[in-house]
Amino acid sequence: MKLTALSPSSDLIAILLIGLCITGSLMGFDIGIVRAEYRGVYLFDILALLVIFYSLFKQLLTKVNLIGNPAPIIFMIYGFYTVLHGVLFTDYFNLYHGYILISCLLAITLPIICTPSNFSTIVCIVLLLAFIESVVCLLQMAGFMGSFSSHFQVTGTFENPNVTAMFIAMACCSIPYILCIVNPGIRKFIIVAVVIILIALFSLGCRTAWLGLVGAGIVPLYLNSQSLLEFIKSFFKKTVGIITGVFLLLLLLSLASRMYQVKKESADGRKLIWKISSQMIAERPLFGYGFGHFEKHYNLYQANYFQNGNGSPSERRNADHVNMAYNEFLQQGIMGGVIGILLFAGILVSVLVPSLRRLRHSIDVNDSNSRLYAVALSGVICFITMGLFNFTQDAIPVWLMFLIFVAFLISEANRTTKQKRPSNVVTAFNFCLTMGSGLLLLVYLYNSLFKEHQISSFLSSKEKKIGSWEAMLPIASADKSFWIGYGQLHLKRHNFSQAREKFKIALNLCSEKDVFIKIALCDINLGNHQEAISNYRLVADMQPTWLLPKYQLLKIYHQMVDTPKVIEQAREILSIIPKGKKSKGRAYHEYASKLLAQYEPKPFTPLIHNSRF
Question: Which residue has the higher pLDDT, 75 or 356?
Answer without folding.
Answer: 75
